[in-house]
Amino acid sequence: MTARRWLILAAALLGAALTARLGVWQLDRAAQKIALQAAIDAEAVRPALGNAELATDGAGQVHRQVRLRGRWVAERTVWLDNRPMDGRAGFHVVTPLRLAGRGDAVLVERGWAPRDPYDRKHLPPVDTPSGEVEVVGRLAASPSRLYQLGEGSTGTIRQNLDPAAFAVESGLALLPLTVVQTAPAGAQDGLLRHWPASDLGLQKHYGYAFQWFALCALILGLYVWFQLVRPRLRKP
């Protein structure tokens, strides 16, 4: 076998090995996401945490259900912009909840409110009781985030909300967790909570895996055809 044929063989084997490995990696990513969803589902059926059970460092409590009591810090409400729900443009309303019997607070992603199509800065009314309320929801690492360029704003309407920076800005002792509210706090507050189910993106990973495996098969097929089969067919 000539040096040129050895080089072609090495390139074909390298390409096939690389594409096959990328296909296996995509399948592994899908398996990891399935395991993550199973862990989330397992946390969801555990008993809800109360005020006393919330850890100050949030360790191991993401995705747990909670039933908390406290008072809204209404003046620190933040409206997260560009959050559609049910096909309509609007905001996610985030308000700190000062926990009863404790000295700290937790951010609560309370629900969705529509945007005024004629005046972006005109915010719809939201009922925020002044007395003690009960909030039912699940724990998340932080409020929902969108991609943004540059530094985030610090006004009432923002694209994203960083809990650590907001704790410094507001002077509140915020826990490093966020409650995604799933039930009303007493009276109806006018917010929607049709939170979308988590999309694991499994079809994307399976699709990419198929493409990589198909490319691997194509590389091997082309090598066999042009280096082994076709030369034999040309022989007299």
From TrEMBL:
Which Pfam family, any one of them, does this sequence belong to?
Answer: SURF1
Q: What is the protein name for this chain?
A: SURF1-like protein
Top-rank lineage group of the source organism: Bacteria
Task: Quote the InterPro entries the UniProt record gives.
Answer: Surf1/Shy1 (IPR002994), Surf1/Surf4 (IPR045214)
Q: How does it sit in the membrane?
A: Multi-pass membrane protein
- Keywords annotated in UniProt: Cell membrane, Membrane, Transmembrane, Transmembrane helix
Q: Any transmembrane segments, and where?
A: 206-226
Decide whether keyword Nucleus is in the record.
Answer: no
Entry's localization field? Cell membrane; Membrane
Give the similarity note.
Answer: Belongs to the SURF1 family.
